[in-house]
Amino acid sequence: MKVVIIGGGIVGLATGYQLLQRFPAIHLLVLEKEAGPGRHQTGHNSGVLHCGLYYKPGSIKARLAVQGIRRMVDFCARHDVHYEVCGKVVVATEPEEIPRLHALLERGKANGLEGLELLDRDKIREYEPHAAGIAAIRVPQEGIVDFLAVAEALALEISSLGGEIKCSSEVIGLKEEAGEWKIRTTAGDYEADFLINCGGLQCDRLSRMAGSRDSCQIVPFRGEYFKLKPEREHLVRNLIYPVPDPKFPFLGVHFTRQIHGGVEAGPNAVLAFAREGYRFRDVSFRDLVETLTFRGFWRFFLRYPKMCMEELGCSLSKALFSRALQRLVPEIQASDLVQGGAGVRAQALSSSGELVQDFRLVRQDRALHVLNAPSPAATASLAIADEIINEIRDVFA
Q1: What confidence tens digit (pLDDT) does each residue in 340-358 have?
Q2: Average pLDDT over residues 111-131
Q3: Is the pLDDT reported for residue 396 higher than 90?
Q4: Is the separation of the CB atoms in 196 and 388 below 8 Å?
Q5: Angle at Cα 372 formed by Cα 137 and Cα 247, nearest 5°?
């Protein structure tokens, strides 16, 4: 059987790796439009190993995050990928956040997290001496990793197991004909008995190309980071996060120590003018028109106009960005920050203007489409791969 995976990000690569382990007789081809694997979400995220604290108990996200971090840590240990389980603190800075903090603690316990610890003001200082906060949760299972190195290790495993990865091969046409997929790419044509779409920022377009009709659409939100100057990195030991506000759809800025050194601060969440728009000046007319003519985007904007404008302000003003960070670490000044990188979330939005919160897998007769895989998809990628394979196991019977 010939199986083609579209997308050489971490979810596509993990799926290929798991497929070859479970069904070694298949012929596997991974098609990646960029010159190498992991060039978009995989290589532009914060590098945090998420263990499932935030996600609704019983959701696919919660289940796969808890399974996924264990699987990811084991994979990294076996393949000499540098990682560290350093723990994080989730800090309440206002009295009204305390009930939400306690609810978060119960949610984490319901999801099966181990070693969660409720901290008072003095205990917070033991872990993060410069953090603000009147209470916090310490999450010892969280950590940091280089996800691009994970992707490279997965690519090597796929090759060693007999699979093939073709880069610089953008899919430009899909047609099902006589029980087989005809796949046109910028580097040649291919055929497949089964298709798995892990196209990330392009996944909805690929699904429509394949004849699937899902009402959700990818709306790109750029997350921008600053870095702390080296002489100010001592202000953050590991990971400092805020308590999520249920009135807003995004988590808010936080601090992340990087596996190769340095401390990132962010991200914000601002509409990107291109699906792969990592800079403010990156504009795709096609992408922008598609977003602005999608009614779900306008319903989202009208639901959260204040948040949208504040996020844009933080994008344009380092002073406003630093003010948001001061809620967690009051000593931070705008002068402590230097420009960092950015990522773009492949976030599915419903036509009603709601962010699709859970992972979303859509099955066709001879295809499966991964249509929403935002954070913690990188951490959970090996577990997501098993979920995908379990959804299509009848194909290999």
Answers
A1: 999 999 999 999 999 999 9
A2: 97
A3: no
A4: yes
A5: 45
Whether 33 and 170 have beta carbons less than 8 Å apart is answered as yes
Listed in order, strand segments (DSSP E) in 231-324 are 239-242, 254-257, 263-266, 270-271
340 token code pair: 């960092």
Say how far apart CA 307 and CA 193 lie, in whole Å: 45
**Rounded alpha-carbon distances, angstroms, from residue 18 to 65, 74, 387:** 17, 14, 10
What is the rounded distance in angstroms from the CA atom of residue 11 to the CA atom of residue 380? 9
| CB 164 within 8 Å of CB 30 | yes
Burial class for 354, CB neighbours closer than 10 Å (0-12, 13-18, 19+)? middle
- Alpha-carbon distance of 270 to 325, in angstroms, equals 16
Is pLDDT at 397 greater than 80 in this prediction?
no
Rounded to 10 degrees, the C-alpha dihedral 193/181/170/163 comes to: 10
Token digits of residue 299 = 């319903």
pTM over 0.90: yes
Q: Are 71 and 106 in contact, with CB atoms under 8 Å apart?
A: no
